[in-house]
TrEMBL record:
It comes from the Bacteria. This is 5-methylcytosine-specific restriction endonuclease McrA. InterPro entries: DUF222, HNH, HNH_nuc. It holds the Pfam family DUF222. Residues 383-396 have a biased composition (Basic and acidic residues). Residues 321-373 form the HNH nuclease domain. SMART domains: HNHc. Belongs to the Rv1128c/1148c/1588c/1702c/1945/3466 family.
Length: 406
């Protein structure tokens, strides 16, 4: 893979064939192949960025009826908006930083590294450097050296130091302009997202999440750090929704909506892809029953063509008074070994109200989100005649957290 040319199609086919059966490769060969492929990918990315810049300068995309290279990359190559923007940005940057561009072209620098410079040193920064008599060629050489020999973080630090020194007394950036949040919902209803925050905003979010992470550390917790943080984010949203202090939208307080047929609600079994949620996600009947334990329920009778015929009175399953009584009795999550505080917990029906269970203190238990889920998936909690809570595994065995008190 030496030289400046990108692999030809036959050469690339041969390389793909070589890695079809990985079992014949030694560990050293596997790592060498990864290193060579990464280098080749960098070189291909460099050619793509140059082509994008040429297409921009020559307005080549107009032949396909589009106005910008970015829109062409999104529409024709099905790239994300962020990736298309990066290709265009990097293509512009290598014109101004030829040494970095040369290292990019020979594969020793990645597109992500070039973008560290491209996204921080744009037209405004280059103009400021020219006014101050700063020779950017010096920094081009320095940044290329850092990119080739040091970590990605080191390059970020070096470029940021240049930007800060360029205008040390400049206007403090508006934190709003530094914030972005994108959320994507997938076909199965799961959600992924990305956010970028300024230093102060990020500190606020981390502080809020960490307070929940550190407060929710039950004995035997096997969750990873990233799982605990994700649980903390959901808990933060749950508490805000429960507190009722969020802005009212069109006369209705924000709330999670789940729609499910009454037959599916009262039936046994998981019932996959049975209920629908407000933002379009589909969940199982079992998950809907879990949410319905402590919820507001509205009855809507639908006609044969999907037209609502009757809307019954909204009914709060667990009244504020009942919750106060259950909290006074249980105080914390009653699942063995937990003890999460009551303000994290739902009121769980030991016998679900959809199956005829009473909405009463005797048929209720406080359970945090994690253990409420466990109980709806085979675990069981019960209160013995002496008033002590017992927790049983799906196989019927009891979870013992200390010496049993008979």
């Amino acid at each position: 893979m030496s030289g400046s040319a990108v692999l030809t199609a036959p050469e690339l086919d041969l390389l793909v064939d070589q890695v079809e059966d990985l079992h014949h490769l030694s560990s050293v060969q596997v790592l060498d192949q990864m290193r060579e492929l990464a280098t080749e990918r960098n070189r291909v990315d460099a050619v793509l960025a140059r082509l994008a810049r040429h297409a921009e300068l020559t307005q080549a995309v107009e032949v396909d009826g589009l106005m910008s290279v970015r829109s062409w990359l999104i529409g024709h190559l099905r790239l994300s908006g962020a990736e298309a923007s990066r290709i265009v940005r990097v293509g512009r940057a290598v014109e101004h930083f030829p040494q970095l561009g040369a290292a990019f072209a020979d594969g020793s620098v990645s597109a992500a590294q070039v973008d560290v410079v491209a996204s921080a040193v744009g037209d405004r920064e280059r103009a400021a450097a020219q006014l101050q008599g700063i020779d950017l060629a010096v920094f081009d050489r320095a940044w290329t050296e850092v990119a080739v020999t040091s970590s990605h973080r080191a390059l970020v630090t070096a470029v940021q130091a240049f930007v800060e020194a360029l205008d040390p007394d400049g206007v403090e950036p508006d934190p709003v302009q530094q914030r972005a949040l994108s959320i994507s919902t997938h076909a199965d209803g799961t959600v992924t997202g990305r956010f970028d925050l300024d230093a102060v905003g990020g500190e606020k979010v981390k502080t809020a999440l960490e307070s929940i992470v550190q407060a929710d550390r039950p004995e035997g917790d096997l969750r990873t750090r990233v799982q605990r943080q994700a649980d903390a984010l959901v808990a933060l949203a749950d508490r805000q929704l429960s507190a009722g202090g969020l802005p009212v939208l069109r006369s209705v307080k924000p709330h999670v909506v789940v729609t499910i047929g009454v037959e599916d609600l009262v039936a046994d079994g998981t019932g996959p892809a049975t209920a629908s949620m407000g933002f379009g996600a589909t969940i199982s009947a079992a998950r809907a029953r879990w949410l319905a334990c402590d919820a507001t329920v509205s009855r809507i009778v639908m006609g044969p063509e999907g037209t609502p015929l009757d809307v019954g009175r909204t009914h709060r399953v667990v009244t504020p008074g009942l919750r106060r009584a259950v909290v006074a009795r249980d105080q914390t999550c009653v699942f063995a070994g937990c003890g999460a505080p009551h303000h994290w917990a739902d009121v769980h029906h030991l016998v679900h109200w959809a199956h005829g269970g009473e909405t009463s203190p005797a048929n209720s238990a406080l359970l945090c989100e994690r253990h409420h889920t466990k109980v709806h998936h085979g675990f069981r909690v019960e209160r013995d005649p002496g008033g002590r809570w017992r927790t049983h595994r799906p196989d019927g065995t009891e979870i013992i957290t200390g010496p049993r008190i008979e």
